[in-house]
Amino acid sequence: MEGGNSPNLQLQQLPLATAAVSVQPHTDSFSYKENLIGALLAIFGHLVISIALNLQKYSHIRLAGSKDPRAYFKTKTWWCGLFLLVLGELGVFSSYAFAPLSLIVPLSAVSVIASAIIGIIFIKEKWKPKDFLRRYVLSFVGCGLAIVGTYLLITFGPNSHEKMTGENITRHLVSWPFLLYMLVEIIVFCLLLYFYKEKNANYIVVILLLVALLGSMTVVTVKAVAGMIVVSIQGNLQLDYPIFYIMLVCMIATAIFQATFLAQASQLYDSSQIASIGYILSTTAAITAGATFYLDFTGEDVLHICMFALGCLIAFLGVFLITRNRKKSVPFEPYISMDAMPGMQNMHDKGIAVQPDLKASFSYGALENNDNMPEIYTPATLPIVQEQHGSKGVSAPPYRVLEHSKKE
């Protein structure tokens, strides 16, 4: 009996062994090739996006500084920037279908590096070599660190790949690690939204955390949609699965809300702070979502995980140094300096320059609502001492304060 069953057992085990041997090397070699394709597509996309945004910005600046009556959308430069912007977004979108999510997301540091290099190349100020190095030393150091971090990310990135089919995405969607992650994310998002809307907690960390939580869901759905499209192009149609359209709707919705919070943050804070803090928070949230949903780091050894984390930290530091070196905008002054008004003599009160009193019933250029004041149309009573310039025989032209009626 045993002798008769042994050939059957050997025949049954032989195909399994050969299948295991044949699949493993193919998966390793092909997965590294997919990682390289996805990384190159992401780098290309972010470079093109950075060039496109700078071209559109250049178009706006050139029209603002000239007497050209044309609108910005009627210039070739702006349309060229729009074309490159769409091309870059397509490159980044397609990169998610080849490489793991945790590898593609940190590569957005390439756009920050490209923007810094373009800003240095097309700078209009003339600097001496010593002043130039002193002014842009942080940018050079930041670019170097970001490049080193990007190299570590590509080299030690996760190497897990699976076909983005409807069955696989549905299985990941109902897995308990992702459901637990979604529960925690929804609770944190609701708490942050409550403090932001009800308690007026307009802190940059609060707003950008809302953006990061929405962005983590955006990149998860982007990878699902892009992967299913690529699998469909390869011959295995996936567009008839309901999960595809669910992911598509979630991708569009989260992207819209993410852009809304980013617009609100740009009105309150400087763009350099948004770029650095937003990159750190969004990348961290996206990597966590990718590791939970797609199990990117399953089967990776400790060395690769530690080197990948080191690459992220170095890229974070590089982006922070690049954005920290940008010029900060000068805040608007809520008053007009009287002694700086063109065509008017200096006005003094006992030798001290006069500034309008914001508590008075009338103020020059003050950002103050005086609608409830009963004497809003009362003329300003500021003592004026005329100063004579030039020879003593020539008198200065008289100046007086005109009264304004309510009809005016």
UniProtKB/TrEMBL annotation:
Residues 389-408 are annotated as: Disordered. It is found in: Membrane. Keywords: Membrane, Transmembrane, Transmembrane helix. The chain crosses the membrane at residues 36-56, 77-97, 103-123, 135-154, 174-196, 203-231, 243-262, 274-295, 301-322. It comes from the Eukaryota. Pfam families: Mg_trans_NIPA (PF05653). Its main location: membrane. InterPro entries: Mg_trans_NIPA. Coiled coil: none annotated. GO terms for cellular component: membrane. It is a multi-pass membrane protein. GO terms for molecular function: magnesium ion transmembrane transporter activity. Belongs to the NIPA family. This is NPAL3 protein. It comes from Nycticryphes semicollaris.
